[in-house]
Amino acid sequence: MAKYMLLLYVPPEARGAEARESGAAATLDDWFAYTDELEQAGAFVASDALQPIDAATTVRVRDAETLITDGPFAETKEMLGGYYLIDVPDLDAALAWAAKVPNAPYGSVEVRPIMEFERS
Asked: Can you list the domains of the chain with their CATH numbers?
């Protein structure tokens, strides 16, 4: 088995109750059903949604000086809205799960294998 991070990106206009009510975004029931399906398949490891990007703070250290900025690291057309960490047999299985994520029809899902290190 291998672990993969599914990074969930959504356009800013697809967040919030108004977007869900208009059908422009997945409902909480859609997300709960997806999570239940992952759990029943034994693939679920962890998941969380993130607060909106206006709650983000970026920290950089340059020349021993800590620089703190409001907002995300870079401007994008889509924002990172959350993640799923899954444990599946291979990349094909991870891609199949990514295609089922409720935001896939209006956002994007980045699939990244997890690097695992052994400590000596």
From this structure: 2-113 (3.30.70.1060)
